[in-house]
Amino acid sequence: MRYLVTGGAGFIGSHLTDHLLAQGHEVVALDDLSTGTLDNLAGATGDSRFQLRTGSVCDAAAVRAAMRGVDGVFHLAAAVGVFTILERALDSLRTNLHGTETVLEAAREAGTPVLVASTSEVYGKNTALGLTEGADRIIGSPLTLRWSYAEAKALDETLAYLYHRELGVPTVVVRPFNTVGPRQTGRYGMVLPRFVDQALSGQPLTVFGTGEQVRCFCHVADVVPALVSLLGDAGCHGQVYNLGSSEQTTIGQLAKRVLAATGSASEIVTVPYTDAYPDGYEDMQRRVPDCGLAEQRVGFAARHGLDEIIESVIADRRARVTT
Ligand code: UDP
User: Fold this and answer.
1) What backbone torsions phi and psi does residue 185 show, to the nearest 5 degrees?
2) CA of 238 to the centre of ligand 1 (A)
């Protein structure tokens, strides 16, 4: 099979690209290299079954050209990271709205199935223990810019659903919950690589807010095969699936675990949100998924525990420091 991975040079996209190539498929990656890097594609580059096209998902001609002859599309390209969303809010909104519409429209023309990557952020401030796909969204003001990411992704979901329902395009939506692992950078705000980099360089670990906020971190290696299964299963089209771990940690505990695992003598400092982020930030106090649907349908399982995840990120960040 031949697949298009938009955002193929990004964190999840590059792991998906490697996985598809390892399964014997051909991959076209479309990436504007805004947050993705060629470094992430070091394993794929040089493989005759791999092709990188540098371009934007908002460019209809580029998307159409990249989609030619493909059997399926993984649409992962997006503006990501809380820092990106707050600092480049308009660009981010445009990419996340128009990019998805452009990809869906090209897929309709080509008759190609599409997986659209949404986000657990769509649940907003719903702190239910075990968020199911039908759970209510609790979102702040549209002018509190943090929510613009969730708003764009929620509209992407509705678009994907309607392209399926009204236009017959096979689409499926996934909502990843705090996917982490090697290659993720802390530059755009993601907490785990930030803590690991801080610990390895002897800098204080910056816990934002109280540190009591809860997240569940899932290894990218658990997420990637599920993406392939969900797109390949016609029974999943027109549906949405959570993908994540149910192992909870507070961010304060995460900082302590990173210190223990690295053996770092760094201290932990708490930073008020107002100092940590530009205007427009609001946090979510707890985000815990129920992934029963993906488990039942495609055997999804979060196999990597948090300690193993932390170790894999430490190994990756250490290798970058020393090379
Ligand atoms: N966070 C933190 N220190 C950092 C970066 C993030 O305490 O250096 C917090 C952030 O405020 C949030 C949690 O860690 O409560 C997870 O943040 P991230 O941006 O990784 O993911 P998300 O908020 O989308 O779950």
Assistant:
1) -105, 155
2) 31
